[in-house]
Write a structure and sequence with these properties.
43% of the residues lie in helices and 21% in strands. The termini are far apart. By secondary structure, it is α+β, with helices and mostly antiparallel strands. The radius of gyration is 34 Å and the shape is elongated.
C-alpha cells in the first residue's frame, strides 16, 4: 500500500504545476493578441492619413490645372498684369493674396468630400527671345500656385507650376 500513497502525493504536485504553466501560456497569448491589435490600429491610422494626403494632393492638382487653363485663356491675361506675387508659396494660406480662382471638385456630388481648392496666378515674367532681324518675340511666364485640403485641415498640399506662352511683338503679357 505504500507505493499507492507515494503516487498519489506526486499527482497533487503535478496538478499545481500544470495550472501555473497554463496561466503563463495564457498571459503570453494575451500579450501577443494585444500587440497584434495595436499594430493593426496603427496600420489603419496610417492608411487613413495616406488617403487624406492623397485627396489633398488631388485637389491641389485639379486647382493647378484650372489655374493653367485660366492663363491659357487670352481673355484673362489683361487682368493678370497687375496680379500680386505670393511671397512664400509653401506657406500660402489660400487667402492672402486673394486667390485668382477655384476648382469645383464637388460638382455633382450629393455630399462635398473636401473644400474646393484654390489657385493664384502671379505676375508675368517677360523674356525677350529672337534677337535676329525682324520683330523680336517675347516669352511670358506666369507662376500658378494651387492649394488643396484633404478631409481634415491638417492635410494641406500646395503645388506650383510655371506656364509660358509667346506674346506679340510689344511684349505686353
Amino acid at each position: 500500500m505504500k507505493p499507492f500513497l507515494h503516487l498519489h502525493q506526486r499527482n497533487d504536485f503535478q496538478r499545481g504545476t500544470v495550472l501555473v504553466i497554463a496561466l503563463i501560456l495564457l498571459l503570453v497569448l494575451t500579450i501577443l493578441g494585444v500587440s497584434g491589435m495595436r499594430g493593426t490600429t496603427m496600420e489603419e491610422r496610417m492608411a487613413g492619413n495616406m488617403r487624406d494626403q492623397s485627396l489633398g494632393f488631388q485637389a491641389a492638382e485639379s486647382a493647378l490645372r484650372a489655374g493653367e487653363a485660366h492663363v491659357r485663356n487670352a481673355a484673362n491675361r489683361p487682368a493678370l498684369r497687375f496680379a500680386a506675387k505670393i511671397a512664400s508659396p509653401e506657406t500660402w494660406d489660400g487667402a492672402t493674396p486673394a486667390p485668382t480662382g477655384t476648382a469645383n471638385i464637388n460638382a455633382g456630388l450629393a455630399v462635398a468630400h473636401a473644400a474646393n481648392p484654390v489657385f493664384h496666378v502671379g505676375p508675368a515674367t517677360v523674356v525677350r527671345v529672337g534677337v535676329a532681324a525682324g520683330e523680336p518675340k517675347y516669352y511670358c511666364t506666369h507662376p500658378v500656385t494651387a492649394r488643396g485640403v484633404g478631409l481634415t485641415a491638417d492635410a494641406v498640399t500646395v503645388l506650383q507650376s510655371t506656364i509660358g506662352f509667346y506674346e506679340s511683338a510689344d511684349g505686353d503679357c
